[in-house]
Amino acid sequence: MTGLQRREQLITVARSVFAANGYEATSMEEIAQAAHVSKPVVYEHFGGKEAIYAVVVDREVQRLVSSITEALLTSTSPRQMAEQAALALLDFIETNSDGFRIMVRDAPPTSTSGTYWSVIGDVAVKVQAIVAKQFKESHYNPDWAPMYAQMLVGMVSQVGQWWLDVRKPDKYEVAAHLANLAWLGMRHLSHNPTLLTTPTKK
What we know:
9 helices, elongated, Homeodomain-like_sf, HTH_TetR, Tet_transcr_reg_TetR-rel_C_sf, DNA-binding transcription factor activity, TetR/AcrR family transcriptional regulator
């Protein structure tokens, strides 16, 4: 193998090992054994476990961000936006299960970005602008947009984690139900939401 080919092989192998064991339970020795090379070869290309983990996660993050962003940009209505964003996430989970497991599991303590939750935060920012526009057109307070964007994206991301293991019903039905809940909820928002019971102040 050339140096570039060996690097790509190690990334592919490490992706599988991290997905199976998680970050903490994976060792450089284990990656080397799975790749059928000596441990110094892995260190030569990446320097340490955190470095190769960062490369693996970064690639998965870019794939997920690209697919969800494309879904948002090509949607022509809020309802379609909800459907396509949900379907993009579920499709990613179906075709990149190992990558998704890596993103939602443990990361190095020093890692502050490039994780699943940083991706969800980025998506929420994109959704926020769309929600704000819809709120203005429907005479709702546009200042609510950041909060509602977090709610919508959080709902989809949580369902995605659940679906990773159950895979029932299929992704199209799950996306339809997600869009149904989000869309009907957004269409019937109160202009002045209040709690049904008044909380007791302490």
